[in-house]
Write a structure and sequence with these properties.
About 35% of the residues are buried. The chain has helices at about 5-20, 35-50, 80-90, 100, 120-125, 130-145, 155-165, 195-200, 205-215, 225-235, and strands spanning about 1-5, 25-30, 55-60, 95, 145-150, 175, 240-250, 265-270, 275-285. The longest helix is centred in the middle third of the chain and has 16 residues, at about 130-145. It has two domains: about 1-175, HUPs (Rossmann fold); about 190-285, Pantoate-beta-alanine ligase, C-terminal domain (Pantoate--beta-alanine Ligase, Chain: A,domain 2, 2-Layer Sandwich). With about 290 residues, the protein is α/β, with parallel strands linked by helices. It contains ten helices and nine strands. Bound molecules: pantoate.
């Protein structure tokens, strides 16, 4: 596995691959501190690349997607462990640049999916999706993959990236990988290690609320009723600080009123102490059972 610290090094490596073969290059962007959720994305990338293709992972804790007072400094990092895990998954190369390598202090350009960046998590974390769209565009331009793989846990992020790739004619296939969960249902996240043992024990309330919503969805329930049920389940957990509960059209993320008639996504953002967790579930009315 090649470890590239500079843009020039990863570009040269990929140019060598491209000159030797037409097989696809598949990118999995990450911020490191890898867990089983990331590794499942590496396997998806390998399956898409095929035996001849190449899988590249990037590890970069991107400062521009963290707001003032957010957890950029305390975001967990363990590069040596990440490299071992990626090696074990047969990843061909890792792009792990230093911060100074990625952003030019004179840079003038940002990428923003206008309305989509301002709604939902974008309201709670202003500027977050601008940081994500800009770094992902830069990674796409540096690595020029055929396909890129992202986790469905960051549902809105995936929507932002798909929209950006389509709007800007990037010509890169975007694939989403399913959420991986702990035994008690908690969605895997690099931030889970920052939960106190007490908060960790309660954090499965997100998955429980989503399980209940999934059961209710085919009963003709309205979006408002479903939302208040989910909210009540979360509010019943005193350690949880509910940041937002939203029910949106699963494809367009448009607001929904009245009974569900199409697949909807339930989007949760809940803090435990200083740890911000998100989760989501696509649910189906009876007429649209999967
Ligand atoms: O999902 C993440 O880990 C990050 O938001 C991403 C896509 C790697 C961009 O920094």
């Amino acid at each position: 596995m090649e470890i590239c610290r500079t843009k020039a090094a990863i570009r040269d490596l990929i140019a060598d691959w491209r000159s030797a073969s037409d097989a696809p290059v598949v990118l999995v962007p990450t911020m490191g501190f890898l867990h089983e959720g990331h590794l499942s994305l590496m396997r998806l990338a390998r399956a898409r690349a095929g035996a001849e293709g190449r899988v590249v992972a990037s590890i970069f804790v991107n400062p521009t997607q963290f707001g003032p007072g957010e957890d950029f400094d305390s975001y967990p990092r363990d590069e040596a462990r990440d490299f071992d895990l990626l090696l074990g998954e047969g990843v061909d190369a890792v792009f792990a640049p230093a911060p100074g390598e990625v952003y030019d202090p004179q840079a003038q350009t940002i990428v923003e999916t206008r309305e989509l960046a301002k709604t939902l998590i974008g309201k709670l974390r202003p500027g977050h999706f601008r940081g994500v769209a800009t770094i992902v565009t830069k990674l796409f331009n540096i690595i020029r993959p055929d396909t890129a793989v992202f986790g469905e846990k960051d549902y809105q992020q995936l929507a932002v990236i798909r929209t950006m790739a389509r709007d800007l004619d990037m010509g890169i296939e975007i694939i989403g990988g399913p959420i991986q969960r702990e035994a008690d249902g908690l969605a895997m996240s690099s931030r889970n290690v920052r939960l106190t043992p007490e908060d960790r024990a309660c954090a499965s309330v997100l998955a429980r609320a989503l399980d209940q919503a999934e059961e209710m969805a085919p009963t003709g329930v309205t979006a408002a009723r479903l939302r208040s049920h989910v909210r009540a389940t979360l509010d019943a957990e005193p350690r949880a600080r509910v940041q937002s509960v939203d029910i949106r059209d699963a494809v367009s993320l448009a607001t929904i009123s009245g009974p569900l008639t199409r697949p909807a996504v339930i989007l949760l953002a809940v803090s435990f102490g200083s740890v911000f967790l998100i989760d989501n579930r696509v649910v189906h009315p009876e007429s649209e059972a999967p």
